[in-house]
Amino acid sequence: MAGHSKWANIKHRKAAQDAKRGKVFTKIIRELTVAAKEGGSHPEDNPRLRAAVDKALSANMKRDTIDKAILRGAGGGEGENYDELTYEGYGVSGVAIIVETMTDNVNRTVSGVRAAFNKLGGNLGTNGSVAYMFDKQGQITFAEVDEDSLIEAALEAGAEDVKTNEDGSFDVFTDWTEFMDVKQRLSEAGFEAVHAEVGMIPQNTIELNMETAQGILKLLEALEDLDDTQNVYHNAVIPEETI
Question: Which of 3.30.565.10, 3.20.20.10, 3.30.200.20, 1.10.10.200 is the CATH number of 12-73?
Answer without folding.
Answer: 1.10.10.200
